[in-house]
Amino acid sequence: MIREDKRIKENNILRAEPGIVIAVLAVLILLIAAVTIQSALGLKTAVDRTTKAYVSDVAAQLALDIDDRLSLYQENNIIGVLEGTGNKESMQRLIQPVSFDGQGLTCIADTEGNVVISPTDLAPFMRLDDIFKEDSEETTVRNIKRMQENMKEGKNGVFSFVAVDGRELILSYNILKSYDWVLLTLVPADLISYETDRYVIQTFAIVAGTILLFLFFLLILLFIYRNNRRRLEYIAFVDAVTGGMNNAAFCLKLRETLKNARRNEYTVAVINIRNFKMINESFGTHEGDRTLHYCMQILRKNVKEGEIAARGNADDFFLCLKEGNRNIVAARLQEIVREINSFNENLENPYHLSFRQGAYLIDEPDLDSTIIQDRVMTACMNQQEFGENSCVFYDICFTQKMKQEHELNAMFRGALENGDFKVYFQPKVSLEDEKTAGAEALVRWQHPEEGMISPGDFIPLFEKNGNICRLDCYVFEEVCRTIDRWRREGRKLFPVSVNLSRQHFKRNDFLNQFADVAAKYRIPEGLLELELTESIFFDDNSIAMVRESINRMHELGFKCSLDDFGSGFSSLGLLKEFDVDTIKLDRRFFLDMSKPKAEDVVECLIDLAGRLKVKTVAEGIETQEQIDFLKQIHCDMVQGFFYSRPLRAEEFEEWADRRG
Prior knowledge:
Blueprint: H1 2-70, E1 71-74, E2 77-81, H2 88-95, E3 105-110, E4 115-117, H3 138-153, E5 157-162, E6 168-175, E7 181-188, H4 190-237, H5 247-257, E8 267-273, H6 276-283, H7 285-302, E9 308-311, E10 316-321, H8 326-340, E11 355-361, H9 369-381, E12 391-393, H10 396-418, E13 421-430, E14 436-447, E15 451-453, H11 455-465, H12 467-489, E16 496-499, H13 510-520, E17 528-533, H14 540-555, E18 559-565, H15 571-577, E19 582-585, H16 596-611, E20 615-619, H17 624-632, E21 637-639, E22 647-648, H18 649-659
Parallel strand pairs: 11-12, 14-16, 16-17, 17-18, 18-19, 19-20, 20-21
Antiparallel strand pairs: 1-2, 3-4, 3-7, 5-6, 6-7, 8-10, 8-11, 9-10, 13-14, 13-21, 13-22, 14-15
Helix pairs in contact: 1-4, 6-7, 7-8, 11-12, 12-13
Transmembrane segments: 20-41, 199-225
Domain GGDEF: 264-396
Protein name: Phytochrome-like protein cph2
């Protein structure tokens, strides 16, 4: 579950990451814009303060100049004023400042605000109140009242306001020491801050343009991201062949479905197409893809709301069914298989698809989806034990068996090196004189910790994974070593048969290894017999190869026997094809000898072997009745618990010595 949660978390992070990056970029851009605008506004405020100070200083200097021309001073005190006549233009030139690039206007008013001398005949200076808006801001109204109070109290001041024509102006008022007048100076607010205002406006425009450009770029990124995300999600979660969910999507959807599921509420099943490679080989990969697509369409048609259908790996299809009844699940899967094969109804030469089916009734909803799928596949792989086209449900014993097999595989190499595999000898007794006629070498695994491990547990496993070849060679060398010791000790030598797995026949030169070992221990010809089972002969090519191998065995001094004779359907045919020295009648022939027909079959086989000059060995003999019957029909040798169980080499030697 940890692995699955991690995968989901990583998927969510991947989805969220582009959005996080874009959000961070947007915040950074907005922060930069805010800082830039704040700096621009701060600059404008500073320039406005500087402009007011400049206007105030110039106006104060002008007021001093006017006082100097109109008043008489003695020790910085006014002792009189000048009186005379002059034209209006002269007075206007007197009060007109040379600063402000000719854009400033001045006038002289009394403390009541009545204009005494104006620079022009324009109306704005005829009445001070006329230049202010009637609906002026509260700040402007407050500044006007303060100016009126300051003028009466003889104080100077400066403030800015918006005139009736919409222009922002700066008004400076300075008290003249003579005549109880006030010098009013009116200057455009942008006289100094014009460039700054233009810079601020440009800054606003650049910032706005940048934001718009970023927004446009952001929209493009989002568009590209969403399209790419859709494409990536399609690639990641949609099967390219069938157009349905792939395995990754199935795992994520399954995890979401089982999040709040109850025990045994859902079942995950797999349907595997048998011999799908033959479809590709016979009809081409295009038809193979069409078959997969067709199967996926049938599956999607048969799932209900809240259920999942997806293609797994290769020719596997996974289903998550909201069913907790095994019979219903099996019936639904059979119906799906029937519907898939319905395309054959109108075909002259039908081609029926065969399926393996496995299912796991989810009793642990918190399990990782990978483990769930593994259990489903484990059940599917065990179908051969339950019959074709049957649905096999997962059982804990499957996993226990797999664990046991894994442990046995892991222990194999060490056991071989440590000599944990022990060779036992089961005597073969001649029915003619009831003396020892030979033995079959059987392997037992005596593990120092696990104890005795049954051959039924490890022989089939090693047959599947190929370790049986190394084990056969180990047993063969142990047998050679034992025969060599018997010879050196002067004991009577008996023929010993060693089982040979079909896996050896995958190599044409496998007999050379056995011949080298026999030569190493100088084993006389005729003492070593290689036992083959009927399962080796699975096709015509194998028959030809085995025939050559048997001939090669004889050339190398080995004898050859056919084990479990009669267990298959082609045993009699094999006698015609192969020059074997001995046949060993399968123990199943002797399980129930009460019926005359069973005795007749055995008698016919032994008679046929005698005609072919092939010796016979009866396996699994346990009763005196069986011994008497076999003596009567002239069977050559018997092997079974009636005479002896498999014995260690030392025990076999003692047994053979007693029997002679």
